Backbone:
């Protein structure tokens, strides 16, 4: 059976990298919406007082935007371009896409979350948190994770309608 690999970048508030990585480990082991068969916390990390910290956050936010735009494109390709179109959205793959969009916007972590802010349970960063990070940069870390799960039970969870139905 094929394994699906996901990469994540977690923003964590902690006194040091060890404690930051423990928070990520605790989160992944107990989070009920996503269960990985295995995950690995990378040793490479970024503290907020390093030059690359904000660049990595920007990259992570861009990746999250790409995922969101991809979901919106899937809906658009199927003819759903306005909110009022959702009134006729059939239950199935497309309604799952809307559900995933809501999760991303509402702060639920998922397998396609690249950047995840554990401080605020969000895929983004609030202006107030950004100010706090700038005031106390030695208390914030970006922790990288590579995670794997067996192929999802239902293929429609990861395939677009055209590839699922071989259109």
Residues:
């Amino acid at each position: 059976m094929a394994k699906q690999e996901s990469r994540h970048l977690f923003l964590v508030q902690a006194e040091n990298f060890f404690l930051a990585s423990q928070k990520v480990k605790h989160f992944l082991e107990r989070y009920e919406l996503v269960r990985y068969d295995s995950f690995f916390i990378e040793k490479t990390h970024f503290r907020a007082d390093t030059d690359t910290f904000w660049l990595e956050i920007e990259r992570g936010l861009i990746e999250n935007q790409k995922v969101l735009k991809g979901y919106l494109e899937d809906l658009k390709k199927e003819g759903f371009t306005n909110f009022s179109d959702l009134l006729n959205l059939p239950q199935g793959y497309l309604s799952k896409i809307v559900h995933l969009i809501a999760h991303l916007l509402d702060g639920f972590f998922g397998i396609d979350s690249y950047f995840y802010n554990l401080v605020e349970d969000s895929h983004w960063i609030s202006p107030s948190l950004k100010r706090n990070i700038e005031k106390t940069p030695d208390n914030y870390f970006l922790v990288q994770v590579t995670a794997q799960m067996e192929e999802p039970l239902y293929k429609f969870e990861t395939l677009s309608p055209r590839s699922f139905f071989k259109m």
Q: What stands out?
A: The longest helix spans residues 52-77. The longest strand covers residues 3-13. Residues 158-167 have pLDDT under 50 and may be disordered. The CA atoms of residues 105 and 123 lie 7 Å apart.
